[in-house]
């Protein structure tokens, strides 16, 4: 898949911290089969050996479904895997340096929290999408700064790159984010913690045809 032609939109599946690789792959495949448009590999406690093994398995899976695999935080892993992209938080490295090392064709995402100015700077540095949040209480990041829904509307008006909402997103509150201007929603718990991951992915994906702004 030519990553440079991929605009992040719809359901953006973000993997949970999972050491059981077969379980991780089963959940990721169910999410992709249900309609996730992109998959981010995020596993904070994993060591380098496990990240490499899981990353290799996930990239093969994403190739099967023709969806991009984006690596959270680890530029060297993204380069080693020839992954489709990288996502960086504010303390995970410089966007401009990541863009230089990734090349022009790869996806590059940036966490911008509740700051529109950070998103404008990220876009200038080469980001191909930006993420704002947390919009709702999050079990993954309970202390995360909260962002207002109005930020999505302002960002969509001022940015030329896709806008992704993150943080505590469920099937019940996602429509509010989409209607406010989010091109995509990044989901961990409400997707991978669902009794039927594929059905949850299908339901999240359907929201984007029902609630477009």
Describe the structure.
The chain is α/β, with parallel strands linked by helices and 213 residues long. It has a single domain, classed as TIM Barrel (Alpha-Beta Barrel), CATH 3.20.20. Helices cover 43% and strands 17% of the residues. The chain contains nine helices and eight strands. An eight-stranded parallel β-barrel has the order 1-2-3-4-5-6-7-8, surrounded by eight helices. Strand 6 (129-132), helix 6 (150-158) and strand 7 (163-166) form a beta-alpha-beta unit. Helix 1 runs parallel beside helix 2 (48-65) and helix 1 (21-34) packs parallel to helix 9. The longest helix is centred in the N-terminal third of the chain and has 18 residues, at 48-65. The model is unreliable at 1-5 (pLDDT under 50).
Strand proportion: 15-25%
Helix content: 40-55%
Number of helices: 9
Record field, number of beta strands: 8
Oligomeric state, counting identical vs distinct chains: single chain
**What's the CATH topology name?**
TIM Barrel
Q: Which spans have pLDDT < 50 for at least 5 consecutive residues?
A: 1-5
Summed over residues and divided by their number, the pLDDT gives a mean of 94
Q: How many domains, as an integer? A: 1
CATH architecture: Alpha-Beta Barrel
Can you write the helix and strand succession as a string?
EHEHEHEHEHEHEHEHH
Radius of gyration from the alpha-carbon trace, in angstroms: 16 Å
Can you tell me the CATH class? Alpha Beta
């Amino acid at each position: 898949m030519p990553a440079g032609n991929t605009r992040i939109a719809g359901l953006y599946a973000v993997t949970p911290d999972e050491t059981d690789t077969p379980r991780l792959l089963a959940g990721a495949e169910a999410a992709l089969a249900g309609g996730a448009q992109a998959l981010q590999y995020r596993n904070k406690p994993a060591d380098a050996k496990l990240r490499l093994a899981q990353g290799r398995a996930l990239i093969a899976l994403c190739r099967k479904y023709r969806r991009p695999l984006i690596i959270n935080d680890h530029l060297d892993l993204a380069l080693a895997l020839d992954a489709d992209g990288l996502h960086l938080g504010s303390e995970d490295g410089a966007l401009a340096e990541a863009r230089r090392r990734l090349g022009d064709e790869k996806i590059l995402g940036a966490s911008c929290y509740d700051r529109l100015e950070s998103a404008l700077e990220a876009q200038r540095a080469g980001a191909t999408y930006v993420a704002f949040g947390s919009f709702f209480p999050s079990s993954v990041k309970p202390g995360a700064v909260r962002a207002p829904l109005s930020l999505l509307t302002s960002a969509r008006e001022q940015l030329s790159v896709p806008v992704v909402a993150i943080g505590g997103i469920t099937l019940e509150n996602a429509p509010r984010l989409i209607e406010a201007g989010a091109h995509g929603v990044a989901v961990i718990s409400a997707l991978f913690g669902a009794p039927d991951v594929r059905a949850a992915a299908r339901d999240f994906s359907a929201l984007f045809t029902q609630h477009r702004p």
